[in-house]
């Protein structure tokens, strides 16, 4: 088995290098080019890089990627890399927006064990290789990370229940790590995601000491036959009880 420390380093390095691939694709793409073509080029370029790099670095491990065909061999594997080559494709195509990410996570024998979330356009990476400290609480209203373009219908109820302030942004990864960098206090999502949307943010957030769960408080499970994982909570640990109580009053 690969040394666990090296898995942390590999996850970080892969996320950073895939981010460089994406920045180059973005820089070389014509300014008047079709945004969909840019999104497709980003998805494909980052996916191809990650698949090639993992095949070289961890040839015996399985991979679950948003942009690849789901190989059922992963369900018989002890180690599975769960990757989102480009989280926030819309934001990636809306230059010069920087709220998009690369997710790389490792699942091993039932648990997420390593991962990284890179924010290439911000030159940032959050990883289990060097777990960041949770910033001090602000003492003000709870700040909720929310979708800039697709706020859910249940959001006003959560805002009222928590007396919260909204902080709009793109990309699930960016929203999750906003709790880590102190930009927000909580991220609540319900309405459709997949394992690759949350695996890397969750393993990094949990390693830092943040609370992570499904919206009903149950554990987030990965490398499942059905890769749909539609809801998520990431929040400061001292807010977990309050956030779960507020979420329990909502109808999704």
From TrEMBL:
- Record keywords: DNA repair included? no
Which biological process terms from the Gene Ontology are attached to this UniProt entry? 3'-phosphoadenosine 5'-phosphosulfate metabolic process; sulfate assimilation
Q: Which Gene3D superfamilies match?
A: 3.40.190.80, Fructose-1,6-Bisphosphatase, subunit A, domain 1
* Catalytic activities: adenosine 3',5'-bisphosphate + H2O = AMP + phosphate
Q: Extract the Pfam families matched here.
A: Inositol_P
Per UniProt, Mg(2+) binds at: 66, 84, 86-87, 197
Which keywords does this chain's UniProt record carry?
Answer: Hydrolase, Magnesium, Metal-binding
Name the chain's protein.
3'(2'),5-bisphosphonucleoside 3'(2')-phosphohydrolase
| Organism, scientific name | Nostocoides jenkinsii Ben 74
């Amino acid at each position: 088995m690969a040394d666990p420390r090296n898995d942390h380093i590999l996850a970080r390095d892969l996320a950073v290098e895939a981010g460089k691939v994406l920045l180059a694709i973005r820089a070389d793409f014509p300014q008047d080019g079709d945004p969909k073509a840019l999104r497709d080029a980003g998805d494909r370029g980052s996916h191809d890089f990650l698949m090639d790099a993992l095949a070289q670095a961890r040839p015996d491990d399985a991979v679950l990627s948003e942009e690849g065909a789901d190989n059922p061999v992963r369900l018989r594997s002890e180690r599975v890399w769960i990757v989102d080559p480009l989280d926030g494709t819309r934001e990636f195509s809306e230059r010069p927006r920087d709220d998009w990410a690369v997710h790389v996570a490792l699942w091993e024998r039932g648990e997420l064990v390593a991962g990284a979330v890179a924010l290439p356009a911000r030159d940032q990476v959050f990883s289990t290789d060097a777990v960041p400290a949770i910033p001090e609480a602000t003492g003000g209203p709870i700040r909720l990370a929310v979708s800039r373009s697709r706020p859910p219908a249940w959001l006003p109820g959560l805002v009222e229940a928590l007396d919260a302030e909204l902080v709009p942004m793109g990309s699930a990864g960016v929203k999750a790590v906003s709790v880590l960098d102190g930009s927000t206090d909580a991220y609540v999502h319900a309405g459709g995601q997949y394992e690759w949307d949350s695996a890397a943010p969750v393993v990094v957030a949990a390693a830092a000491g943040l609370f992570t769960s499904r919206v009903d408080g149950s554990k987030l499970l990965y490398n499942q036959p059905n890769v749909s994982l539609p809801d998520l909570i990431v929040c400061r640990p001292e807010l977990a009880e309050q956030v779960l109580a507020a979420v329990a009053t909502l109808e999704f």
